């Protein structure tokens, strides 16, 4: 393949990838591979010897991976706002992405399971959201980048009256509220 | 000497003594009534303490007569203080078949009635007489104006007022039929009459929770979810736009409660440092913080009847408990300092109008139940045991409570008589929770 074709291909792929950025959770369109992998997309045959990290498809894939990591929920024990090790690992990944993407703003929404006082659960959800925000700002993310809100028990992720459902509802959710297309993966 | 006096008495005084004794026996009932001046309205009707007098509500001729009879009878039944004989709409109604509105003391006595309620439709409303069946006489009578719109919500509310007055004549305690209850269904605030009729949507768009009554009986407050957080709104249920409390445009602002004089609103304000209680004068001015949570959560304030204290839920001990404090935030006291049940979780207090009791919910055996604590001796009574029961709210009689129960499989509102334990289901369609009971709504509206 000559340089012209490669250039044309890259442009088309970049346009397609930009289109993908405006959808919330849609995976990147072909020819990019599954977005959960961070591996760069192989160019079509014959493979060029050019460095792969700057292709539009690779950028789209990395952005999707960053979005997935940034919006991954974290979970809590009953009546608790304490961060588990898994929570911290998830938040560490978010710190990296947010520090690499200065234009991005997020909103942390705290949730509870259905048990206990509906009214007190609003405060507990608020506390869970505040705990995540505190961790992020303590690791350098600007305060102004993060809003918090509580849904208490009002917006369960999973219907059900057992621990299988309850454990999925005691969570913080992370939503990108601005700068989604400026999202960059964490600096290596 | 004694023997001499006795023989004198016997010869000269016996007939007079006997006469005096006979008179005393005849007059004794009248004398005891005359002594009972503190219950002036309960003239002529006295019962053994702890008994429920039987009451007949006679058939009512004329326009809307059946409804009048049915409403008054059911309101008296819901009051749990009298035994309504032949309650319309139940199988027992057959015992009144063929019994007209006319006076018949022997017939009523044979039905075990202590009182009979005789209502007559008039051009302006209804004329009601209450009969003492044993004494065979009318003991109270009055004319009540009713709106001309028979069957309307306004008319029903007025008839409930008649029933409440009749209950006061018979039992000495005013009924609570002439009240309404706010609640949440599907994230919207509704109002319903105390007998379950007339459900009406009140709130506008937006997830709305925790409705509260102002003492005026038509202003309410509730919290609404927006894109940036929760705000506290006030609204007149008679109509008009909702108004956002200026200090509640950001953060988590929930669980509003009016002071008994209607001039102050307490609510919970949460930011990233915790959730504290605030007071704000409704006439204007900024809010004052009355709890210092140090990162803990303080929610669901409720005023005492004299407006001087507030009961609330706080997690400051590491788990939710019920506290009471002065309205300026001083003298905070843990109300529920005991361990019972399998996990420490007590919340959602409501102060009874008699100022002597606080109802709350407590986790027991993995479920929540309605409890009442006496402020006199701190004794605690468990009022429910079936399903999950939450959010108690007292009726104005400090005896009935409305609460949320899952006992039917879906959250619905139930009304409980805390004395007899009798529970009746208030809501049926959809789910319902977070109820608030109004004051008596007499004098129109």
Structure description:
- The complex is a heterodimer of chains A (188) and B (445).
- In chain A, 41% of the residues lie in helices and 13% in strands.
- By secondary structure, chain A is an alpha+beta fold.
- In chain A, strands 1-4-2-3 form a 4-stranded mixed beta sheet.
- The longest helix of chain A is centred in the last third of the chain and has 21 residues, at 118-138.
- Chain A is elongated.
- The two termini of chain A are 31 Å apart.
- Chain B has 445 residues and is an alpha+beta fold.
- Chain B is 16% helix and 37% strand.
- In chain B, helix 2 crosses helix 4.
- The chains are: A alpha+beta (188), B alpha+beta (445).
- Chains A and B meet through helix 4 and strand 3 of A and strand 13, strand 14 and strand 17 of B.
Please outline what is shown here.
The complex is a heterodimer of chains A (188) and B (445). Chain A is α+β, with helices and mostly antiparallel strands and 188 residues long.
Topology readout:
The complex is a heterodimer of chains A (188) and B (445).
Chain A (H helix, E strand, L loop, with lengths): L2 H19 L34 H15 L3 E2 L9 H16 L4 E7 L6 H21 L7 E7 L10 H7 L1 E8 L10
Parallel strand pairs in A: 2-3
Antiparallel strand pairs in A: 1-4, 2-4
Helix pairs in contact in A: 1-2
Chain B lengths: L1 H34 L18 E4 L7 H14 L4 E3 L19 H6 L4 E7 L3 E8 L4 E9 L7 H19 L8 E6 L2 E6 L6 E2 L6 E6 L5 E7 L3 E8 L6 E2 L6 E8 L5 E8 L2 E8 L6 E2 L8 E6 L5 E6 L6 E6 L6 E2 L11 E6 L5 E8 L2 E8 L5 E3 L6 E6 L5 E6 L6 E6 L5 E3 L7 E5 L8
Helix pairs in contact in B: 2-4
Strand content of chain A: 5-15%
Total helical elements of chain A: 5
Helix content of chain A: 40-55%
The low-confidence parts of chain A are: 3-43
Relative strand content of chain B: 35-45%
Quick one: how many beta strands of chain B? 29
Number of DSSP E strands of chain A: 4
What is the typical, i.e. mean, pLDDT of chain B?
89
Summarize the main sheet of chain B.
8 strands, mixed
Number of helices of chain B: 4
Shape of chain B: globular
Radius of gyration of chain A: 19 Å
Q: Which strand order spans the largest sheet of chain A, edge to edge or round the barrel?
A: 1-4-2-3
State the secondary-structure class of chain A: alpha+beta
Q: Looking at the chains present, what oligomeric state does this protein adopt?
A: heterodimer
Radius of gyration of chain B equals: 26 Å
Distance between the termini of chain B: 77 Å
What do the pLDDT scores of chain A average to?
Answer: 81
